[in-house]
């Protein structure tokens, strides 16, 4: 069986601009925790029935005290990912023939979670090319129209969205939702752990984050925050297994995922304080790309590290290049740059989060060299 056993990650020393990975790179403490707690369900040695009740290691303190403060919520839980957190909320609130309202930039898992929970989906459209913005007043329009069809039990706002990195006016949207007695869930998979965000300050009812995308953790792992008055619905327990919370199937992150999340947490708290610098760097990068006629779509000026670009020039090159639409991926790989998906030339997204400016200068030069070579 020669193909199995240890498999080296060939891109581990590359400049990494993959939005899925820039915020999830492990801290040095988390790398140690990865080995220390890597054996199976390692934390279960200390469990008496519920993950968040484990006091040694200090999971209890993290879940009940530290995490709610960080998220700006009243009650928090660990999940197996952001999608599982969204599904738990939707499933707990679902009723026959009810609806959930999603923003038009929502991640596919928001749709799938809604379908799995038996909810109908109504969509708040974005403004289209080039901004793809979510306008708050459209929530009012869609909720009002949808209420004619049935109960609206939840609204979801992706903050920011995973395509364009847009940050809508979440406070205004929360206010509108509450005017219609609809709770709001913030999907902050690319926000919690990268930038300052507090559920209460925004006025939302639920907040979801991703440990492996944005909190320097091994994954999959997610975090869920909620208002206290929703805890009875979300945290209901099994009739037979009295300690087990039904919406989380009794238990969630049972080993290295929770321990790397906790190990990286001090590092995450400190880097969130540097968010303004990350935004400044992203805007600088966007401007440099546009000098090469690679146009950033979405919010301008941009307010997040995740960016979506459009390049007619690279697309035209791909029509004639020997490697076709894979030429860009191959050229970047030769220069040890990782993160843009194979086959993409006209449209692609990337992230500058925690990538040193010197490395981003190398990325800019790489695009310049590639365009010059093929032009």
List the helices and strands and how they pair.
Layout: E1 15-16, H1 28-36, H2 59-71, E2 75-79, H3 82-93, E3 99-103, H4 108-116, E4 120-124, H5 136-147, E5 152-158, H6 170-179, E6 184-187, H7 199-202, E7 206-210, H8 211-214, E8 222-226, H9 231-234, H10 256-272, H11 275-291, E9 295-297, E10 306-310, H12 312-320, H13 327-334, E11 337-338, E12 347-351, H14 357-374
Parallel strand pairs: 1-11, 3-4, 3-5, 5-6, 6-7
Antiparallel strand pairs: 2-8, 7-8, 9-10, 10-12
Radius of gyration: 22 Å
CATH class value of the largest domain: Alpha Beta
**Count of β-strands:** 12
Number of helices: 14
Mean pLDDT, all residues: 96
Instruction: For the largest sheet, list the strands in their spatial order.
Output: 2-8-7-6-5-3-4
What does this structure look like?
- The structure is a single chain.
- By secondary structure, this protein is of the alpha/beta class.
- The chain folds into two domains: about 30-270, Type I PLP-dependent aspartate aminotransferase-like (Major domain) (Aspartate Aminotransferase, domain 2); about 275-375, Alpha-Beta Complex (Aspartate Aminotransferase, domain 1).
- About 40% of the residues lie in helices and about 15% in strands.
- It has helices at about 30-35, 60-70, 80-95, 110-115, 135-145, 170-180, 200, 210-215, 230-235, 255-270, 275-290, 310-320, 325-335, 355-375, and strands spanning about 15, 75-80, 100-105, 120-125, 150-160, 185, 205-210, 220-225, 295, 305-310, 335-340, 345-350.
- The protein has a seven-stranded mixed beta sheet, sandwiched between helices. Strands 9-10-12 form a three-stranded antiparallel beta sheet, with helices on one face. A two-stranded parallel sheet has the order 1-11.
- It is globular and about 70 Å long.
- The mean pLDDT is about 95.
